[in-house]
């Protein structure tokens, strides 16, 4: 069956071969990460009628009431990327337009011309260095570089 073939491919290729970037086996990495996974018991809320659609700018922000509010790095995909925005109890909530899931929440800024950032939305400046270090450690077999 197609499902069986897909599972065999996953075992043989998808999880069974060294990842091109990390140089690690996905199967082994998942075994480590699996212990940290937690069940999701929430229910995604569909967009409410009072939500409005906002365009995501190239810098992963939306403009609302004279301010810019950040979204996670990579939210912007094209000039057509949009999210739902809802203001609730002094907060600005941004939702994925396709799934209705909450992407992020910011405190509403009452001043004008501000950019409201969540530090987790910024791309880590040393992300490439960390990946290179992991590859070097894996390739060299050393624990210290």
From TrEMBL:
Domain of life the protein comes from: Bacteria
Residue ranges occupied by any Transposase for insertion sequence element IS21-like C-terminal domain in the UniProt entry: 45-118
Protein name listed in UniProt: IS21 family transposase
């Amino acid at each position: 069956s197609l499902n069986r073939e897909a599972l065999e491919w996953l075992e043989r290729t998808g999880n069974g071969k060294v990842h091109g970037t990390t140089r690690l086996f996905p199967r082994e990495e998942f075994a480590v990460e699996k212990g940290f996974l937690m069940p999701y018991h929430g229910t995604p809320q569909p967009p409410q009628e009072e939500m409005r659609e906002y365009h995501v700018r190239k810098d992963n922000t939306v403009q609302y009431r004279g301010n810019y509010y950040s979204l996670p790095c990579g939210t912007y995909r094209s000039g057509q990327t949009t999210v739902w925005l809802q203001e609730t109890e002094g907060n600005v909530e941004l939702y994925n337009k396709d799934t209705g899931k909450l992407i992020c929440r910011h405190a509403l800024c009452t001043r004008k011309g501000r950019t409201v950032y969540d530090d987790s939305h910024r791309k880590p400046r040393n992300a490439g260095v960390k990946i290179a270090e992991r590859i070097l450690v894996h390739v060299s077999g050393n624990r210290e570089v």
